[in-house]
Amino acid sequence: MSSFFKSFAGNPREAAAMAMVQSSSYRVLSGRNCSNIRRTTPLDSFLAKGRSPVKAFSFLYVSRYSTQPNNEFGHSSKRRSRGPVMAAKKAADGEKQEDGKYKHTVDLPKTGFGMRANSLTREPELQKLWEENQVFKRVSDNNKGGSFILHDGPPYANGDLHMGHALNKILKDIINRYKLLQNYKVQYIPGWDCHGLPIELKVLQSLDQEVRKELTPLKLRAKAAKFAKATVKTQMESFKRFGVWADWNNPYLTLDPEYEAAQIEVFGQMALQGYIYRGRKPVHWSPSSRTALAEAELEYPEGHVSRSIYAIFKLVGGAKTSLLDEFIPNICLAVWTTTPWTIPANAAVAVNAKLQYSVVEVHSSPEDESASTGKKKKMPGKVLKTQQNLCVIVATDLVPALEAKWGVKLIIRKTFLGNFTEEAGQFRGLSVLGDGNSAVVSYLDENMSLVMEESYAHKYPYDWRTKKPTIFRATEQWFASVEGFRKATMDAINDVKWIPHQAVNRISAMTSSRSDWCISRQRTWGVPIPVFYHVETKEPLMNEETVEHGSDAWWYMSVEDLLPEKYRDKAADYEKGTDTMDVWFDSGSSWAGVLGKREGLTFPADVYLEGTDQHRGWFQSSLLTSIATKGKAPYSAVITHGFVLDEKGMKMSKSLGNVVDPRLVIEGGKNSKDAPAYGADVMRLWVSSVDYAGDVLIGPQILRQMSDIYRKLRGTLRYLLGNLHDWRVDNAVPYQDLPIIDQHALFQLENVVKNIQECYENYQFFKIFQIIQRFTIVDLSNFYFDIAKDRLYTGGTSSFTRRSCQTVLSTHLLSILRVIAPIVPHLAEDVWQNLPFEYKNEDGSAAKFVFELKWPLLNEQWLSFPAEDVLFWERLLELRTEVNKVLELARNGKLIGSSLEAKVYLHTANVSMAPRLLEMCEAQNEADTLQRIFLTSQVEVLSSMETEMVSSVQHTGEYVEGENKVWIGVSRAEGSKCERCWNYSGQVGSFSEHPTLCGRCFNVIVANPPEPVAAAVIN
Ligand SMILES: [Zn+2]
């Protein structure tokens, strides 16, 4: 094995692949449109060929390639040139020495940074490295900027993570990591919502009947806490594997005693300010969960059908006016309801003083009415069929359309527990939504009080957990009076920055219309409402002193022990309340439990970031508690994201089989072909790629695309690393000495960094993704990187031309790394750990890890590239594209193989363009010459088309540039091929010691005699 390959971490296969890269980049990848030849990254292009690139380009092929340079793989016409690489390869494969005479003078890329991410092992390694070195904490502590607090919305500690969690936490991590680079002290405390019914039910379901009978509230609470903590642990491990940085050792759990204390403090403050009251009001009651529910715990599924009835109440007299006397006893008041079961408790019929009512006589024709109309089931009552001279009172406006709404309010009298209570008389014990409803309807009909029954489809509130219908029920509950601080809340909403901006309408509408917040729940697994009730009067006792106890204590301590000193002697008169708080009160107090308690955190938080459903959930509950007690919003900005759907925009569900599991995305599935292990960075790249303001899509196809883009990005970085293997920062060429092409490259880079920074500041990551993709994968590879190879490999190791190029490349590497690091931190760190040179921050500190770097400062000098030159370079790149088209024609016509075998002729009448092109043929810096930019051996700019030569050129093309035509011709290059660089030159043959070299190569060899081979290959 030659020493060349030893430099590749002892892996000959990789070495072969690496070496191939140089040549393959000069091949046209597809015959489709060859004008824009290099679409893919040079280092990566071979990978696009198949799943097993290394195999496809085995050693065997490489050696054959080198001996038959014009006929590799049978499609030599598509191949451009790569002399030095081939020469090196030949020597490596033991070809005759003379063939590879100059191979050791060629500077090929070298790096230990592999093309394959190997994320299954590499990402955990890097994560361990960060953890062991406490990189997040150290960087944050050392940062000199202000603090940045993104306050985590607590996911529910129940079940496995789904893609929605991944989207949410990775978005947060991207923001936090960007702020770290921006020199902020970033503290991110992850949280979990641990109380509530789902966990309580899960625990109950896991117990058998016998154990359940023995269950005390304390035992149930202990089991629920254990379950929640175990879930927190598993979810935390997954979040860590996503590469999310957080203070994992100190998360906040809503079951922590300190947290509960802060929550009760918020409750107490609200109570003292008079915002908490006990009221008997209709609330949403879930018979299936046996508790009151808040608005945020309801959902309104499609297709709910209620039994609606039109019923009548007989007027029996007593009216003060004689207005209706003539109709009595045959006059009724008609009502319409979708809840017939409420009739037994009905105490009155309300009428609207502002409406006009009419007495209408009913002339019924039962045969006609019994007909079922379409989908709606209609059942006229007996009264319609039998009773004559029936008069009902209805609102005049409704006479033409009885099905339209009635201005009726029902005042419900008594409570029942999902079933009718004793007070319901003959209906007691019946389920209100089942038999009870039917019994009432029948009863009304028997008593000639039913006009009609009709099934009625409408929006109806369901319990979001049990997926069963709720009912309205008047009960004694604890409420937070939103009315008391609604105006302050609306004002605060306008001071918050909502991203996307339309979200302000959503939160405003929801807050302005919401009724008082029912905060009590009749469950065990939660924070108890600290209230005592007088045994006889049921009067609640709650004041500053009573609101002071931990959660479990409430359950195990006696009333006497719980009561404050001054009430102790009356302990026998009181009992403890058994209600717990709405879990939205738990999480809605997190600003107090976390921002208000942890050291280094600030109130309000800079950002809250959650899904759009939190406008009626956490964003709102946090806002309400904070406004009520602090008078201001707990956040300065709120970012919302949509839901994750499958590739077709369908909701993910197990039954559809379209669920994308974040764990499988990272670790791969059973079948690695269908479900490869993509690693966290590919998933993170996906997060950056979606416009999260709306719903986002993911599926196997999208993941494959992401993986492809990731590989290309990795290839770009590998190119940079490989070509900087001998770089030292003090090799840098001063800006003013750089060739124009290099100054232009820095100008473009700086604009890209500037744009990306703006996008980060506006949280528009999908734009960053697009910029990175276009710049690093398409633009750089197609142009700068492509033509840079010539001077990098053959310009001479320490030559000005190579050093100036490396100056540009090192700047690109350092900038690209930093701008992508928040999105793909593992990739960035992996590159950083393979950095071949030492780099120090502006303040002189060494950066051991990539996040110890700071965001690149914008360089005004680079940005000041003159506007007219920017324009000229745009036109030059367009010209290059057109030249490539003609070169392709020549290649197809077998005139040339490699573009280095070509000479290009140009003519344009454009007075601003022509002189500059002419100038560039003889540019002072070789890198700026047109032939290097076109990757041809010669370029000649013709001052006139009136020469014989024009007609002798075989392949020509023309395009319109502004108001002028530009003419392009391609003929074979003049002179002979230089053995070392494969450029054609008339000078080849003129140096007696080196008869096969061109002038440039001769100078390189003579001026910089090659170092001993052994030294040249040390990695
Ligand atoms: Zn040469």
Automatic annotation (TrEMBL):
Per UniProt, residues of the Zinc finger FPG/IleRS-type domain are 975-1003
Q: Which SUPFAM superfamilies match?
A: Anticodon-binding domain of a subclass of class I aminoacyl-tRNA synthetases, Nucleotidylyl transferase, ValRS/IleRS/LeuRS editing domain
| Keyword Transport appears in the UniProt entry | no
Q: Which residues form the Aminoacyl-tRNA synthetase class Ia domain?
A: 126-696
* UniProt keyword annotations, A-Z: Aminoacyl-tRNA synthetase, ATP-binding, Ligase, Nucleotide-binding, Protein biosynthesis
Give start and end of each Methionyl/Valyl/Leucyl/Isoleucyl-tRNA synthetase anticodon-binding domain: 742-905
Q: What class of enzyme is it?
A: ligase
Give me the segments passing through the membrane.
none
Enzyme Commission number(s) of this protein: 6.1.1.5
One Pfam family cited in the UniProt record for this chain:
tRNA-synt_1
Where does the source fall among the domains of life? Eukaryota
Family as reported in the entry's similarity comment = Belongs to the class-I aminoacyl-tRNA synthetase family.
PANTHER family the record matches: ISOLEUCINE--TRNA LIGASE, MITOCHONDRIAL, SOLEUCYL-TRNA SYNTHETASE
Name recorded for this polypeptide: isoleucine--tRNA ligase
The protein's organism comes out as: Brassica rapa subsp. trilocularis
